Amino acid sequence: MTNDENSAAMPASAGPKAVNAGPARKAIARGAAKPLASVKPRRASAIGVPAAGALTPAASSAGPPLSVTPELLERISRAEYHAPHAVLGAHLEDEGEATVRVLRPLAHAVTVLTGAGRTVMEHEYGGVWVAVVPVAHTGHVPDYRIETTYLDGAPRILDDPYRHPPTLGELELHLIATGKHANPGEVLGSRVRHYHSELGDSDGTSFALWEPRAQAIRVIGSFNHWDGTHHAMRALGRTGVWELFIPGVGVGAVYKYQIHETDGTWRETLDPMAPAVTDSPATGSVVE
């Protein structure tokens, strides 16, 4: 079963441990706290991509993007979909191309940066932007970064959380789902990780929470101004585990989870597996 076949069902895909770059995927129908960490934009040259002025536009003969229904895009725009990776991120097409979608509600312009060049994205729906990029190696999603320009005019280049595969493997998920994992704290909670890819290294933190009755979960924290719109987690199979890797988040970041209940309400909760929390009144879990 492919990653997206799993993630399109409720819940999303259980997959291999994270690797260097995003997986090839088919799109669905169409005490005191430590210093706060933040998602830091990086210059293009710092991630192995030429600076914006030096990177040429990618070939413009791309076909149309893989289609997604307006109803699903609406759920993605509200960060209420249990399988955001099935829509966001890069998804292979049949013609040697890949459709890339990102959620940037307040962006003025968004561009995909790949080894082939720059591809300007188009606003599709409710803050969702889309582009079709060339695939250099058949069957493999190209490594990419996202350049976002807001009204202040300063472009910001970041890695995309939705290009990364799950950070828990099938055995770990099975043991958690059946209550047989000897130490679930080893795989749940937050973990600082480091990855290598064609366009440069990526550092960040993976978040994993067991919440089997949730309809959707977002990560909120000091790194996203406590707005989880950009950081909806995916459900991994029918295990009750939700997961997301967020590039740029490091040690000392303070966070919580927003959980979408079956009655439609949202509640905030600390991470039960976090080794540390901040002092009241502004309580939060801390990445260590």
Structure description:
This protein has three helices and 16 strands. It has 288 residues and is mainly beta. It folds into two domains: 3-13 and 22-159, Immunoglobulins (Immunoglobulin-like), CATH 2.60.40.10; 163-286, Sandwich (Immunoglobulin-like), CATH 2.60.40.10. The strands form four sheets. Strands 1-2-6-5 form a four-stranded antiparallel beta sheet. The chain has a four-stranded antiparallel beta sheet with strand order 4-3-7-8, with no helix packed on it. Strand 14 and strand 15 form a beta hairpin.
Which characteristics define this entry?
288 residues; Immunoglobulin-like; 2 domains; 4-stranded antiparallel sheet; 8% helix; disordered N terminus; Ig_E-set; hydrolase activity, hydrolyzing O-glycosyl compounds; Glyco_hydro_13_N
List the helices and strands and how they pair.
Elements: H1 3-8, H2 70-77, E1 89-92, E2 97-103, E3 109-114, E4 117-120, E5 122-125, E6 128-134, E7 144-149, E8 155-158, H3 170-177, E9 189-195, E10 202-210, E11 216-221, E12 234-236, E13 241-247, E14 254-260, E15 266-269, E16 285-286
